[in-house]
Here is the input.
Amino acid sequence: MYKHLIFDLDGTLIDSSDGVVEAVNYSLRQVGAEEQPPEVIKPYIGYPLEQMYPDFTDAPYDELYAHFGVKAAESVVRSSVALPHVEKLLERLAGTDLKLAVATTKIRMHVDGIINKLGWGEYFDVIVGGDEAERFKPDPAIFQITLDRLGADPTRTMVVGDTINDVLAAKAVPMAVTAVASPYGNSEELIASEPDHFVQSIDRLPSLLGID
Here is the structure.
């Protein structure tokens, strides 16, 4: 039924949370704001930073983002690891006719660094970073760019992501979407967004696609 899969990255395929927490707290320190514990920061991962910072400080976003970028340039790629079952999943999907893509809020420089570090370049036909789209998810702009680069029919494409923004952006195209329980939490909100499918673990994806 599907010819293309578009994956979110953080919380879906990888965990870069240690590096994100490090960069967020670095940026907060630079503006004299209070650092936040990892359990407070991690639920924001996968969402635009501009949604997170106002909950922590009144400091100007541009200043915070600049400081975040300085630290994230080395901490995010360094900390990134594949989530459980992802390596085997990508190997399995590589043996099919499906074309795979990544569409993520992370900036392209970080995405390329992570993909190269993990040796995943051969798996993805298209990669789109958050700085390549004018608007972040839940706006569907990044998915439209990805579809165009894939030459894909949205009716034959499924999105796989771990946040409500992935679900809403996919529906706005519209495309089918499978939500995966995020390591950063918020499963109740994710299920309430009414994805076409919800799975606790990404290793259930092949059975949904009928390729087990």
Notes: The two ends are 14 Å apart (CA to CA). Residues 25 and 35 are 5 Å apart (CA to CA). The mean pLDDT is 96. The first strand starts at residue 4 and ends at 7.
